[in-house]
Amino acid sequence: MAKCRLSHSRVDIVSMRDWKVIAVSNFAATSVSPKPTENVGLSIDWLLKLPTLADAGARFIGEPRLIQRQIKWVHIVESFRSAQLLRGGELVLATGVGWGETNESLDEVVTAIWEAGATCLLLELGQHWTETPRAILRRCVELELPLITTQHEIHFVEITEAVHHELLHRAVEKSNAMNEVSRKFALLNQEQASVNQVIDQTAKFLKCPVVLEDPMHRIVSYSLGLEDKSLLDDWQVQLQTQTPEKSREIAGNVWFFIDIEARGVHWGRLLYCGKTQNPATGRFILRQAAVALTVERLSSTDSHGWSDVVEANILDALLAQDADPKKVLENRGLPVAGENYVVCRVSLASERKIETPVIREQLRKISAINRPLVAEVTSQKNEWLVVYVCRDGTNPAEFGKLVADRLAFSMSVAGKIVVVLDNVTSADLASFTREMWNIDAAITKMRLSRKIPGKGPQSIDVFGIERNQLDGLMLKLRNDVRVQEFCQSRIGQLIDADRENGTEYFTTLKAVLAEPSSRTVAAEQLHISRSALYNRIESIEKKLGISLSDPDSAFALSIATRVVQIIE
């Protein structure tokens, strides 16, 4: 075997076959920290840093990778019979006084220690032997059994006390950590926490990225912490050929997982990537999180799947400013090409709170092939953002009418539905979703291009809203600094004044530009009198140094307000 050197600052570790040694005193100051592990044991690396060994002039003989092996207990072995009593994972202390003097007897004892699964052999020199017998060196090399030798006598009790004290300390630390994990997840269940809250808490305990997937490997929820979202790229594609047992490798990253199942139902898997430093261990944290998710599912309205969570999380992902619609849809098993989407906002006039699962169930009954994604608009009572994944070239206006008729019939409530009339593809789904989520009543009234009134006293009206070609151009250019500078120079003063003084100059300007030929209609939309409107117009013109009756000025302001609306 060729030499294999690994620099540890001032320490060089060489191949066991060369029978070279390393001063333990060097380890105490410069050895690399052990890799995170889920075992309770101590690494040989930790042992080598003990002052007792450094003072005894101890030497480590072994390959560099072996210093991470775990010690679970300490045992003294001074005979072949005592070697047979080992249970595995021990640090074996010995003087060799009862091992015999022949090569055969020494081989026999070392082999028995190795076969029992001991982690390391610490041989004291000075009392029985003054140097390590070559038979022991040779056999340790052959079996890759790490060997530590001392130059003079040491008190085995000091080594035993130090190791056992640290093992018990870590066991108590692990027990306390496990109790805290159990307590926190039990509290989350008691407070009826959502799936996303459970996933976030799991990531906090592990300090690692966490992903919840369904049985088809579609992402349900995730919490990545400081990791980039690219960690999830091509999630489904990379899993199709894998048959993991306890972990799987995705794009070079190892993910550990646990199945989530109860009462014969398999809901999917919970995974985390990396090494956790939590004493409770990653496996225990995953198990407790899986129990919490199981309780959440059994008490939910969708106890056979994650559709409610998936739908809300898809829309949340699409609402993010840096959303990549293609990746969002692919990672969740939704179509990207060949389909179109109907985006609408549903508002129902009811004094009682209507639960989202009820709305979702009714919307699913409308079409067997068009799947709805539903998310509640939390800032408004009984309002939902709905995105339909359509595979049959559905007309948005007609589909909006189907939704209105279904809800009016089944819910017996009045209301309205605002539906995007544009042909929405996956490429621009995110922008339309954000626009519909942030749309306010004033903008809706100014931009409605079609209305289909409902029938009867309990009816739901359908309003069509579309983005014209100018809006599409402004959407593409909204991040251009030149466009942003143009908007700031035209209407920045109004926005700043509204923010600082609580005025409504910007809202007034939008209403006036939307109704250039009728100040009366603009005043009605703003719910103010005509005289109040004229006073506001005078203030706006004074601040901007322009006249709203000038066509060029009005056109420039119209462009600026459209861009601001799209950005917002």
Automatic annotation (TrEMBL):
Span of domain PucR C-terminal helix-turn-helix: 507-562
Residues in Purine catabolism PurC-like domain copies: 47-167
UniProt-listed InterPro entries: CdaR-like_regulators, PucR_C-HTH_dom, PucR_C-HTH_sf, PucR_dom
PANTHER family linked: CARBOHYDRATE DIACID REGULATOR, DNA-BINDING TRANSCRIPTIONAL ACTIVATOR ADER
Protein name: Purine catabolism regulatory protein-like family protein
Naturally occurring in which organism (per UniProt): Corynebacterium kalinowskii
